[in-house]
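ugh ok fine here u go
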Amino acid sequence: MNLDSFIAEQVALATEKLYGSRAAAESIQLSATRKEFEGDVTLMAFPLLRLSRKAPEATATEIGEWLKANLPQIESFNVVKGFLNLKISPAFWGDTFAAIASAPDYGQGQSTGRTVMVEFSSPNTNKPLHLGHIRNNLLGWSVSRLLEAAGNKVIKVNLVNDRGIHICKSMLAWLRRGASETPQSTGIKGDHLVGDCYVAFNNMLVEETAEQLRAAGIDPAEATAEQKKEAERNTSCMKEAQEMLVKWEQGDEQVRALWAKMNGWVYDGFDVTYKNLGISFDKIYYESQTYLLGKSLVEDGLSKGVFYRREDGSVWCDLTADGLDEKLLLRSDGTSVYMTQDLGTACRRHDEYNFDEIIYVVGNEQNYHFQVLKLILGKLGFDWADAIYHMSYGMVELPEGKMKSREGTVVDADDLIEKMYQTAKETSLEAGKLADMSCEEQEKLFMMLGLGALKYFIIKVDPKKTMLFDPRESIDFNGNTGPFIQYTHARIKSVLRKAAEQGMDPTFTGATLLPKEIEMVKILAGFPDKIQEAAAAHSPALVANYAYNLAKEFNQYYHDVTILKETDAAARNQRLLLIATIAKVLVKAMDILGIQLPERM
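structure:
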């Protein structure tokens, strides 16, 4: 039974009986009672004064008296000015606990009938995944699981940016480096090898740009940003990369063959990283397969007068009347831009899945891009454009500052996963409690702890916020961390194993709940609403912090209350059921975040 819904219905009935008119739902305002007052739920009387035509205190008192007289669930009440504080009876919490404990998939929302598509990851094929991609992947995965838990049908998709000037830069650098390196010959993971080529191109560009500036009589160290851009455009490496892109769009066989080979190396590398992160997709789209559809939409927009062509042949959309600027859709050489393929991809997806909402998990530096995407689709006549939601998130920074891919100063995802595993291993071995575990069990535990620490540390932060990632802080077994929650679950499982060995049975017995147990039941009772709240806000952080609060309260309960040594069998067995239910909810909450909980540590 949802407490707020129950109280709201009874308050409406009270006003009908007392004042001859049933209170509207929006006028019944409930909240948790503040800690300095006695009670569980507080009703604000002020919106009900037009029905009672009495003072706030009198109205609150009359409603409180009616509820106390007619509902066994109301133990007592008190009035503070215009606020009615209701104390709920232990019997109500006992019934609530019994219902929670018996629910097979507690927290899972009923089907909404809605289809939600979530796009995340969206890597470029010129570099391996890095820490920034990890936040994207973890947010995308967890918001997908969250929306599923809220009752939606969710389709997880990835859009691989597999064409464009970025991959041409890596291809050109590979050719200039001798065109002989392969993942097999070098022993380098495919996405890392291509990423090395991208960095090599940037080094070439820096050198050739400096040469261009010096040839023009300009000191590279004193050149303006515009002078540097002009010099970059005139370098041989940039011109060759642009020519390669044009050839690719024209279907040049040699360029396409090299492109397919190097992208294949990258995909193999991505697959390893995704597997290690526990990430998968229902469908993967490729920019190379959707950009032509985007081009056809641009042509359609030209014929409708939505877009216009400039003298140099480039195509634009004028959004100045919408408070934005003019947006390029096709370059003068006919090649497409990101917006072009995003238009095509969005239309293909809607045709295939007829989604009710499409969520793009993309960093906040692309806020403008998704404003424009939504506007242009609307101007092209697609009434589902309003279904687009940009889940904008902040960047991940390190104590050393921001990362830069083309300069090779990023934190590689594979290296970070390995570092988290090693840190978890060192921390666990120092604790010295793994003597009875096999080597295989230990290795599985180290990876579970390392990934749990990484995922939780990133997900617990509100997605909109820029975050500072510190691997050493994330692995802590105390405080608001993944390992703390994992350890809590293992502790509960340890108690339950000992109970089973002694023939004890976790059972609801109807024993009177202690005040601390009622507090635990209150937290458990809020889990379904927390899932719905988090889903509406597209914020897995709310579930992460719920799980931490639940784990923290359990540990305090475990410290203060006797369980296995309790002499009253009814109380003991019910406490065992309570902690088993806590473990069940922790598993559900952390599964939404993509985090596994160990049976023992």
